[in-house]
Design brief:
This protein has 259 residues and is mostly helical. The protein has nine helices and no strands. The protein has helices at 2-25, 55-59, 74-93, 99-119, 124-144, 150-171, 178-194, 196-219, 232-258. Helix 1 crosses helix 3. The protein is globular and about 65 Å long. The two termini are 36 Å apart.
Length: 259
Amino acid sequence: MLPLVLLCAVLGLVLGSFLNVVVWRVPRGESVVRPPSACPACGHRIRARDNVPVLGWLLLRGQCRDCGSPISARYPLVEALCAALFAVMVLRFGADWELPAYLYLAAVGLALALIDLDTKRLPDALTLPSYAVTVVLLGLAAALGDHPGALLRALVGALAVGLFYFVVWFAYPAGMGFGDVKLAPLLGAYLGWISYGAAVVGVFAGFLYGAVVGIGLVLAQKGGRKTKVPFGPFMLAGALTAILWGEALADWYVDATLG
């Protein structure tokens, strides 16, 4: 297990570096392939040795090699967070056919959360293609792995969570963006694959996190009832909670309430 954890953590570091490009360029409608990464201050192309995840930033001491402009600490943090998420997914699912699907969710979810925090929107350029990727990866996991009923649960989860978010949006469109509605079926599929209980926990946790942060902003006098807070990161945090502990939390709630 440890070699696989380390391998996926390194993969997460490398992919995290690419996600920094995605987070910057996708909201601007720019290609994530060309041109090569460059310093936004002086325009000099970033050298390959300086583009090593985390280590490159540390060796440069957070400054551009050419002009000395500061490089945000967010870059190595995103790379490290992606590596941590990949390692966690390996610990959760092991060397199973479903692992690639959840590694993909970790990567695209991290990118979507950061973009939503920056721009308060979830770009279709990431969300919509993820439907096809998810169908392929979960379909392969169902065909090659021992997961009876999981694909059907994923479909039911996608429909149920998507419908729930659509109803919430339809009832109060000012409180939720339609990008959240488009993301919901995707998360519902991944959570439903695990269990129906995990899907319920994921939705509840997302709203709980959103409510706690919203109340905190009001109490800190940094927001009001009409302050717009991006909800995508809370949805994704709730989904992560459910992926890791959803089944246990659902079982605990059933035992506590129904005995």
